[in-house]
Design goal:
This protein is α/β, with parallel strands linked by helices. Among the domains are: about 45 residues, no CATH class; about 140 residues, Rossmann fold, CATH 3.40.50.10140. The chain contains 19 helices and 35 strands. The strands form 6 sheets. The protein has a 21-stranded parallel sheet, with no helix packed on it. The chain has a 5-stranded parallel sheet with strand order 32-31-33-34-35, with helices on both faces. α12 packs parallel to α17. The longest helix is centred in the last third of the chain and has 26 residues. The N and C termini lie far apart (about 110 Å).
């Protein structure tokens, strides 16, 4: 049950005893909410480094005297809500480091005859008492000099020995649940010089006749007195006001969840005779006054309110303050009337001309104000007002022009149902809150504004920076913001805090790039990074904006596509260049032409044959072909019809089509082979077509004439059938001597006729 920091949580495990095997490593041991009845001597003997021991809500009724003897480092001991019938000083004799002790909720009736806490020199907070606790004796608190907090459940306390609490020199905050009103004044007298803040709960305030400061010398220490869940009458309040004036150190009175059975019929003459009050702050929260509408206007209290500086009356059905009373709050700086029943008609009476002359802060939130223009006009009568909260009033509309105090710097108009912001809002503001109003835009010019709160509206973009150049803090939390750009962010030159959390961010590449690379943005964004979450793209929905990194393709799609297009273009350009260099296009077209030729009849009909032979030769051999061979063959008897590309190709027709047509219209194809022929590209193309068309038909339509000796290996290997023919069949070779030339011509003519 222990974690890495040696905090061992064994609560609510149904344990009947302290578990065995506790070691010196343990620093916190939680045994709360079990069924432990007895703490034995050896149970905690080894836990010498224990700092906190939680034993509340068990059934502990007995503790061995030396059970805590080894816990010299213990700082917190909670024994509350058990069944201890007595408190023994021996238990705490060795707890030299103890700072917090909780003993409330047991069944002891008193703290014993001996001082139980005398050895606890470092004690800071003490909680004790229970419904059976009935007696506090002198000496119970001996040894304690200072307490930060003392909490006593004395709901059934019936006996208090005078001077019992005087031994404590200083108590910052004391809370006592006290129903017996007869001992209230005795406790107060003992605490005048020690306690700073006294809080009394569930008391029915008595009509005290004796002075609260009798036989006490000034200066007193008590500064604040709080009553919670207490009961008052007109008579007890009148007497309390008089008696509390004697405590000259008392500066603050507070009443929370109290009940007044009366109508304000206080003894004004006695109150006035007792002199002015030293109290500067009065707070009344959730006061219940029977028949509050019949309550008097407290006429006669004027002399008691002149020095008051802070007044809070909240959740107490206040609907008006009489004008002549309001004028006597001459020193009041702070007035809080939130959650009451103030309406515009009564506000005119409450804030009349000359009332509240020094008021700087006014809170009228959660009232029944409905007309903003009238509200502003009433408030304009407060010449020194700086801060105004009129939030959570249902104004609904906002005029274009309003009259406000010239000194107004802070205005809270949140949750007032205004549909837009207009020039009704004063230009003097430094802080403006218009949250929760369904605003769709904000373009108001407020040159002095430093803080702007636009939470829970419908804004889709950040407000423009130009109309609010001095803005330091901006909240656009829970709007419809999708993103904001570097330019928008940097346009706020003085921005120190930006709360854009809980929006549905579109995590685009531009937005993410800005977020990841903007220096110091993490220090400016409130709630970063936990409350900044992507809503789209779908793949990253729910992820924190700061943790999302999109791929290069997602972020630079157009650039990647452009690069791919450029690359494809370069590849195509390269292929075109290669194709041009190696005539690839020509070969492709040639192959296409051959495929088309494949579909034609294997031989053209006799009527389509126009030539005896198509002559394929190199341009370097044209002199021999044109001047020797053509003259010999075409002037023979009968003459041969030869097809020469120079003479017989159709002008303008693609050369491939000319070659194919000429071969198909010729009975034979005559190749004049030489070294020039082998090196000629066009001769190779003509050999290709002969290879495709003629050799594939396995006929003897080709006639080979060797103009000069060549090696068969010089013929390209791809013309395998031509090489085979040269290796296996006879070909005509042009002789050097004239006698052999005549035989050559006869053989050539015979081959052409065959």
């Amino acid at each position: 049950s222990c974690d890495t920091s040696q905090l061992c949580n064994c609560s609510s495990m149904g344990l009947d005893f302290v578990p065995l095997g506790l070691t010196a490593k343990i620093t916190v041991l939680n045994l709360a909410h079990n069924r432990i009845k007895h703490i034995r001597s050896q149970d905690l003997q080894q836990a010498v480094n224990l700092r906190a021991l939680l034993l509340q809500s068990n059934k502990i009724s007995s503790i061995d005297e030396d059970s805590f003897q080894s816990l010299a480092k213990l700082e917190l001991l909670d024994l509350s809500n058990n069944s201890l019938a007595h408190v023994s000083p021996v238990w705490f004799g060795y707890l030299f480091s103890l700072q917090h002790l909780h003993l409330q909720g047991n069944s002891y009736r008193d703290l014993g005859e001996s001082p139980p806490f005398s050895s606890l020199r470092n004690l800071s907070s003490l909680h004790l008492g229970n419904p059976k606790f009935s007696v506090i004796r002198q000496g119970n608190f001996e040894g304690i000099e200072f307490l930060h907090k003392l909490w006593i459940d004395g709901s059934n306390l019936s006996q208090y020995e005078q001077g019992s609490l005087k031994s404590i020199k200083k108590i910052n905050h004391m809370i006592i649940n006290l129903r017996n009103s007869n001992i209230f004044s005795e406790i107060v007298r003992d605490l005048l010089h020690s306690v700073i803040w006294l809080e009394v709960t569930e008391i029915t305030l008595p009509v005290e006749k004796k002075s609260l400061v009798q036989n006490s010398t000034r200066p007193f220490r008590i500064q604040k007195l709080t009553f919670k869940e207490s009961f008052f009458t007109d008579e007890t309040i009148s007497r309390a006001i008089v008696l509390l004036k004697e405590i000259t150190s008392l500066k603050e009175l507070e009443a929370v969840d109290c009940v007044l059975d009366g109508q304000g019929k206080w003894n004004m003459k006695e109150i006035a005779r007792s002199g002015p009050s030293f109290v500067e702050t009065v707070t009344i929260i959730n006061a219940v006054i029977q028949n509050f509408h019949l309550f008097f206007d407290l006429n006669g209290m004027q002399s008691q309110i002149n020095n008051l500086k802070r007044l809070t009356i909240a959740s107490s059905n206040v609907f008006m303050v009489a004008c002549y009373i309001a004028k006597h709050f001459s020193s009041l700086l702070y007035l809080d009337f939130h959650d009451n029943l103030l309406a515009n008609k009564r506000l005119d009476e409450t804030i009349c001309e000359g009332s509240w002359p020094s008021l700087q802060t006014l809170n009228l939130s959660q009232n029944s104000l409905k007309f903003l223009e009238q509200t502003a006009k009433s408030i304009s009568r407060l010449p020194k007002l700086n801060n105004l909260d009129i939030s959570q009033n249902n104004f609904g509309e906002i005029p274009d022009v309003c009259e406000w105090p010239k000194t107004l710097k802070y205005l809270n108009l949140s949750n007032t149902q205004i549909p837009k912001v207009t020039t009704c809002i004063p230009r003097t503001l430094e802080v403006l809150d218009v949250s929760a109003n369904n605003l769709k835009e904000f373009g108001l010019e407020l040159p002095l504004l430093k803080e702007l709160y636009l939470t829970k509206n419908q804004l889709k973009t950040l407000p423009g920076a130009t109309p609010i150049p001095n803005l330091v803090a901006l909240s656009v939390r829970r709007n419809k913001l999708n993103s904001f750009s570097k330019e928008e962010f940097e346009s706020f030159k003085r921005m120190e805090l930006l709360d854009a959390s809980e929006n549905n961010f579109i995590c685009s590449c531009e937005f993410l790039s800005f977020i990841h690379h903007e220096a110091g943005i993490a220090q400016v964004l409130v709630g970063w990074p936990d409350k900044y979450v992507c809503d789209s793209p779908l793949a990253v929905r729910g992820a924190q904006v700061g943790a999302v990194h999109l791929s290069l393709m997602e972020c630079h799609r157009s650039l990647v596509v452009s690069l791919i297009c450029v690359l494809v273009f370069l590849v195509i350009l390269l292929l075109v260049a290669v194709g041009y260099k190696y005539h690839v296009v020509w070969y492709v077209r040639m192959t296409w032409a051959w495929l088309q030729a494949k579909r034609k009849p294997k031989r053209a009909p006799p009527k389509d044959v126009c030539y005896d032979a198509f002559v394929s030769y190199s341009e370097n051999d044209s002199d021999w072909v044109e001047n020797t061979m053509v003259r010999e063959l075409e002037q023979a008897c009968p003459p041969f019809r030869l097809c020469l590309h120079k003479r017989d190709f159709v002008p303008g027709k693609w050369i491939v089509d000319n070659i194919i047509d000429s071969i198909e219209k010729s009975r034979k194809t005559l190749f004049v082979l030489s070294e020039h022929f082998v090196q000629s590209e066009w001769c190779k193309y003509e050999l290709d077509f002969s290879h495709f068309r003629l050799f594939d038909e396995n006929n003897d339509a080709a006639i080979l004439v060797l103009l000069e000796p060549i090696q068969s290996k010089t013929i390209p290997k791809r013309f395998c059938k031509l090489r085979k023919i040269m290796n296996t069949k006879t070909y005509l070779e042009w002789p050097a001597g004239e006698e052999q030339q005549q035989v050559f011509w006869e053989n050539l003519k015979g081959a052409l006729k065959s």
